[in-house]
Amino acid sequence: MLIAASSFKKLNYKLFLLILLCMVIEVDAQQQMLDSSMHYIRNGDKPEWQEFNGRTPLKEFTIDFHAFENLSEQTLQLRQYDVKQSWQVVLNGNKLGTLVADMNDMIVYLVVPPKALHSGINTLQISPASKVADDILVGEIILHKGKQNEVLHEASIGLEVVDKKSNDSIPCRITITNRAGVLQMVAATSKNQLAIRPGSIYTINGKITLGLAAGEYTIYATRGFEYSVDSIQVTIKPGEHLQKKLTIAQEVSTEGWVSCDTHIHTFAYSGHGDASLEERAISIACEGIELPIMTDHNIKVDVAPVMKSMDLNRYCTPVTGMEFTTNLGHFNVFPVNLETAVPDQQLRDWNNVGDMINPGGVGSVILNHARDIHIGFRPFDPKRHISIAGMDLDGWKFPANAMEVVNSGSLQTNMFYLFQDWFGMMNRGHFLTPVGSSDSHDVSRYLVGQARTYIRARDGKPGEIDINETIKNFQSGKVAVSMGLLTQVTVNNKYGAGEIAPLTNMLEVSVKVMGPGWTSVNCITLYANGKKIRETKIEPISSPGLKWKGSWILPKFKNDVFLVAIAEGPYTHLPFWPLVKPFQPQSPEWTPSVIGCSGAVWIDSDNDGLQSSAYSYAFNALEKSKGNIQTLIKSLGLFDEAVAVQAASILQEQGWSTKETQLQKALQKAQPDTRLGFQNFLQGWTQSQNSKAQ
């Protein structure tokens, strides 16, 4: 039988449509979209963050869907965001697993065991497994018919990251996001020289071959704060293998400065987080930390043997420390003697802490996250501490010689609170080294070294750093605190942080701000005894390396002061360097920023060669006044506002009230700085009393 040409064409067209339909059915058979939306779930009474205002939350998420019984393993894919606490995923009453405790936006996969699905209606539920408040987004749920390993091995890609100068492979962090900018889980596991989490890969040799679900991705490579970022966009098809190279370069010159993270944990010894000792060693090398301080809770961990066995000791010089975790605060101490016992952590006060953990006073003791609450105790709670005066209301002896001003694993809603606390303590006569640290327990949830401390020391060979020299300089305050920016201050082109500049007729204060091309600066501020005295605001500068340089000519100060320069810049989300929201927020509003703080350089205004604190001036003035309040107030006119604050605090300790008539009359004739100092102390005192009454 003959078929007309036109009929043959119609038959071929129908056959083509039938084949295409079969292909679509086959694709659909491989995956099933269960829910394409993102859902807001709240475990708590009120929104944690302003971004959730106006949205109606669910207490838990439940969805019913039709499926067939699975005789072999399948895979559940979902997207999660802002997960801080534990959330369980339950299918038909059986727990599949938990969401990843990570506030980053990410795609994750869970194994669906054989026969976990029923033929007919199935129920998937996501609910809180903790009583601690937490707001999350979850959704975009897909059920894949294949095993997890198969889903993540649809395609593969080989990556190599090299140093621009040498063209050699370099330790680095690789970040992978999908077309929506969401961290994408990959098919690779932590082993040998790799530490891997969803969307995040640390590789010591700069190389990795990994499996990926087919799709469109952006891949980033960097190496911590000092390096540039390189990125590529790829579209990878099922069965395809790609090979790509990325190039990064050191953009921030830190010659003569050792990069240090003084607050590093492991899951192996702290018992929470997720970083094994080997993974921690890898992440330290890949983030460019030259002097890592290991500080697990009430245990002394020597990571040096692990570093050596993994051939990582050429990248850093590890130091054994310890976080002395007590019912009255946390203190990092280093270096520690591995042979001595850990002191009793049950404290009644701070009076003996320094002697317990730092016998002889030769080591470094850091007060950690002073505004965080642990075991119901906040070290710098207004109930027991007046920030502006550095005044402890319990009468305890302060046990540390340093304090964290930036902790990237536990940021403050107002990032300047801890700086203000530091200023107050310095004026009180506690000459504390400012510290930046990560407090990281995880491979990628909180980046090790994201906040860090740069210490003035020889750094030519990272694996052979002189620990004694570096720690001595740390204790002297020869440091700079960095979280995205690096700020250095110099007086008269000679004296820097941790040094005393002698009295001269003219003071030239120079400041320079450095950073990689992926951060910017828009404000530089100079403080004297904690008071803002100069400020320069500029359009955001994101050029790599030296971002800003300037100087101010200052008149003579009335008394010795310490100068500190702080640079700030706007922060926009960087998938490869995400700033994590405050763990203990004081407000649902938070505006993150990058920051760089210099150490303190002292101006010896009285030319005695000493660092004289505001407290010492105030105390001497009180002694000389012999109880005559008018004489005291008049003499305070010779000093700055910080001295007046300290004088007010001492009078308060002696039983005076700043509201007493005699004192108020004397203040009416006082110099402006004196009046302002008393007013500011009264405000801090009132806040403290109100806090106690609550």
Number of helices: 13
Alpha-carbon distance between the termini?
98 Å
Largest sheet: 11 strands, mixed
| Unreliable spans | 1-11, 13-28
Total strand count, please? 38
Q: Measured on Cα atoms, how large is the radius of gyration? A: 29 Å
- What form results from the Cα inertia axes? globular
CATH topology of the largest domain: TIM Barrel
Give the topology, please.
Blueprint lengths: L4 H26 E13 L17 E7 L6 E8 L5 E5 L2 E5 L7 E7 L7 E9 L5 E11 L3 H4 L3 E9 L8 E7 L4 E2 L9 E4 L2 E4 L3 E6 L2 E8 L7 E7 L4 E8 L8 E8 L2 H4 L6 H10 L4 E4 L9 H6 L9 E2 L1 E5 L2 E6 L18 H5 L6 E4 L17 E2 L4 E2 L9 E6 L9 H12 L4 E5 L14 E5 L10 H9 L3 E5 L2 E6 L8 E3 L4 E9 L5 E8 L2 E11 L3 E10 L6 E10 L22 E6 L2 E4 L9 H12 L3 H8 L4 H13 L7 H8 L3 H22 L1
Parallel strand pairs: 6-11, 9-17, 18-19, 19-20, 23-26, 26-27, 31-38
Antiparallel strand pairs: 1-8, 2-7, 3-6, 3-8, 4-5, 4-7, 9-14, 10-13, 10-15, 12-13, 15-16, 18-28, 21-22, 22-23, 24-25, 28-29, 29-37, 30-32, 32-35, 33-34, 33-36, 36-37, 36-38
Helix pairs in contact: 9-10, 9-11, 10-12, 11-13
Which labels suit this protein?
single chain, 694 residues, alpha+beta, Jelly Rolls, Immunoglobulin-like, TIM Barrel, 5 domains, eleven-stranded mixed β-sheet, five-stranded mixed β-sheet, 38 strands, 20% helix, globular, disordered N terminus
